[in-house]
Amino acid sequence: MRDKSLSIGDFVTQQNYEKLLFTAGPASLLPENITGLRPCFGRDDKDYAVVEERVMSALRRMSGHSHLVRMQGSASLALEIMALNFLYGRVLVVQSGYYSDRLTWLSDSAQRRLKAVKEVERVEWDTLDAVSGSFDWVFACYTETSCGLKIPIEMMRSNADRLGAKLMLDATASIGLEDRHELADVIAYSSCKGLFGLTGAAFVAYHESPTNELDSFYLDIASHKDKKMTGPYHAIASLDEVLRNHDAFRHAVLKNKHVFQKNFAKYLTLPDKNQPSLCTHLSCTVKTEDPRAVLYTPRSDKGGSVVCHLGEVHLKRTAQGIIQNVLQVES
User: Fold this and answer.
1) Contact call for residues 232 and 243 (beta carbons, < 8 A)
2) DSSP string covering 235-257
3) Which of 265, 242, 208 is nearest to 314 (CA)?
4) What is the pLDDT at residue 38?
5) How far apart are CA 127 and CA 240, in angstroms?
6) CATH no. for residue 24?
7) Which of 99, 116, 134, 170 is most deeply buried (CB count within 10 A of its CB)?
């Protein structure tokens, strides 16, 4: 049971000391996650309306999209809503691992349910340059956490243009950490991982409005845009103070990534251009004897280990990657 006499800062320090995260998100607990919380309601609450607009404006600037819809739920909900509302015609899914397999499932589901999607094809990410023909959409994961892979967004954008397609991205593991999201026509992501907020909010950002018509209240993006149901009020409130200091929190992730790459240099499996900020894939198996540590178990087994770098986010610019001292290579 926690000591109720602790300040918020001391409470957060204690909680982060007792659990060392090497997982893909949410990040370590931040004081700002807590101090941003408040009583709130979605209608006629002027205080919350100001908070939400401030958060939404910050997120629009971050991704470079003029339109942004928030909803209560996981990134998986945002991805399904995005697929159903935007996809049509011929869809090319870029295969990179477990999470891109989910994009194929969502595309196939959209084809079965709406008939707007006429065909779904798949291509391995490293052979995308060889695809020919014409497509309406290219659908991909910017960062694939199941194998610690980043697909350069410029490469995806240029291939989409070559194929006459729009670009749709699962940005769950890249938003807040990687650049140039504006190159995608539409993206979906959640409030945790690289945004460093609490779980519970999901977002779809886009340049142009969708044209599909859905026979569903909950899966129609317009229902969320028009705020016809309870929104992710507390998750958004927790983001308010976090986003004001986002650069400092992001610095902690990049520092951990840099230190980790130096410490485990001989086990790296990917070149720099394919190294995401969030995580790193190693050819070895990583273990720990520290009972506080929570290692990342990817949803698909590509061999080796994936280690994520969100465990010292609370340290901001003072982070030095010391958390990694509890990790060892299994012999």
Assistant:
1) no
2) HHHHHHHHHHTHHHHHHHHHHHH
3) 242
4) 94
5) 41
6) 3.90.1150
7) 170
Same domain, 211 and 278: no
pLDDT in tens, 12-34: 999 999 999 999 999 999 999 99
Task: Indicate if the pLDDT at residue 1 is higher than 60.
Answer: no
Distance between CA 138 and CA 91 in Å, rounded?
A: 6
Q: For residue 319, what are the CA distances in angstroms to 47, 178, 225?
A: 34, 19, 38
Final residue in a domain of this structure, among 244, 264, 283:
244
- Which residue, 191, 211, 244, sits at the end of a domain? 244
Judge whether 2 lies within some domain: no
Q: Are 170 and 188 in contact (CB under 8 A)?
A: yes
Residues 6+ apart with CB under 8 A from 74: 190, 199, 202
Whether the Cβ atoms of residue 237 and residue 51 lie closer than 8 Å to each other? yes
Signed CA dihedral, 33, 37, 42, 48: sign only? negative
At 74, list the tokens. Answer: 């996981």
Query: Do 230 and 102 have their domain in common?
Result: yes
- Place 331 in a pLDDT band, splitting at 50, 70 and 90: confident
Residue 48, domain extent: 34-244
